[in-house]
């Protein structure tokens, strides 16, 4: 068994140690180098497009393999059977002005689990649309980073109600507001290598509850009638991208996810009143990756997200790759 207090202590030690290393590197380095090409790391959100009229398209492909589960106290346990998922998430971003962009993600999932069947075909998830405003432009010579503000809504396009089985669950049925603030700065280290640092924080909150009937993504069963509302959630983290040369970059994300439990109320198939709030959950993930760009506007990234600590969530490994294209 894993000592929970030790895990938490180690998590925060890793986070602050990595942050200290990044700040030390940045504080002792020269201003940003020109000409480095990036695709962006696996987890960190990118800011507004650099110029009006640019269209960015970045499809991500990932496979998620659970290898266990973290209990309420953070201890890890074996998990059988295991829920597996193949996903495509494509980011679409368009520069309306030099400082304002609109961004959307299309998400398609296919899941399966032994004894629980397969999805009845590829399933669309909820559809987030955000406005992205770069409210501070970077000035590398003065060590001023770029700051971006995100604000948007998840539209409830994923299946969540009257499901054939739980594999078809891909949404919440609720409109969810989300916002984020991001920071990005680039420096020169070790003589002539670019080091890009990003930090960010996301916050999400449901705008209203949704009607639930029968088998739903909220864990209800046949005969249930009532309503549900997802809990608040968020993410914070930082990424480092180190340029080996103009085309090749080593990337790493470290992020913390958290979510309050969703609430469900109504009557079940036996006429019994139900009013419950699910347990909260959280995780820590690290995502090392390698980027390769053959032009300033086209590149690929390959890596894996590894969920190495948390509570009430899966111990997961998620290898993935993406293609970054800017037109």
UniProtKB/TrEMBL annotation:
Extent of the signal sequence: 1-32
Keywords, ordered alphabetically: Signal
Domain of life assignment: Bacteria
Protein name per the record: Transporter
Keyword Signal: yes
InterPro entries in the cross-refs: FApF (IPR025737)
Pfam families assigned: Phenol_MetA_deg
